[in-house]
């Protein structure tokens, strides 16, 4: 358990270190299959607990033989999960179903809900309208990107104290539909709710959260004290929303652990106050027309200055002439300052 947990944590940190990210490829088998393998799939001799059924134009899930812990079924034409397919592997640990055509109504009882040891479930790019369940309390990595999710019942994630990453981006979720969804999650580090229909940042997220992605929604404000309730938060992305100055309470982003803040493609007219420890600030394509050093530094001195490394202000109503004389002293660590 411990090596796998460390592996998942390394993956979480890797996606947080850049502004944009992609999903990684899965290992592809290169050796002969073991005798104990579904004929439609491959079970490498050097990895006999894994069964690879990906990219085979399958329309159904074959009966999975005992001994399989890792099952890869991505990139097929599967549209349902029939009862019995997992009866031999109730101790399955990883299940990857990305890029199929599975609907919520075609997931039969006694299938995924029987997988009590499941730690990783990837259900990206299918036709789900609600999460499958009940799901394993052992879950650590849950991804349902690119479905048709419009509802997310409050008890869906109940008891998942080990859940570390949750991707429910690119769906049809509203703020009301995810209310109470994150209660009781003690280990959640990454939450992606981008590309949905949210009008406010998700409520009730756990204090363990380090990365929150809420780009491409309809959010127009940030509640006062929101970040103060997330003491571990390092990466916050709210780009491509409807943020306005009146929806940004004074000092709401002035928290010491925040490393990256993306407020690009909104409707801000001024630069919000940030903490001097912030390293990456993206404000491109807003309506900002004034540059106030007080947003970055209360005052400048040999020991008081902003730790910003990247500051993007392109696509605003600013030019180099708007920069105050003391800018280079306050922003002495900036390696990239982009302005019109």
Automatic annotation (TrEMBL):
UniProt keyword Glycoprotein, yes or no: yes
Alphabetically ordered keywords of this record: Disulfide bond, Extracellular matrix, Glycoprotein, Leucine-rich repeat, Proteoglycan, Repeat, Secreted, Signal, Sulfation
Signal sequence region: 1-18
Pfam families: LRR_1, LRR_8, LRRNT
Annotated localization: Secreted, Extracellular space, Extracellular matrix
Superkingdom, natural source: Eukaryota
Domain LRRNT: start-end pairs: 36-70
Family recorded in the similarity comment: Belongs to the small leucine-rich proteoglycan (SLRP) family. SLRP class II subfamily.
Name of protein: Lumican
Organism from which the protein derives: Chanos chanos (Milkfish)
Name of the gene: lum
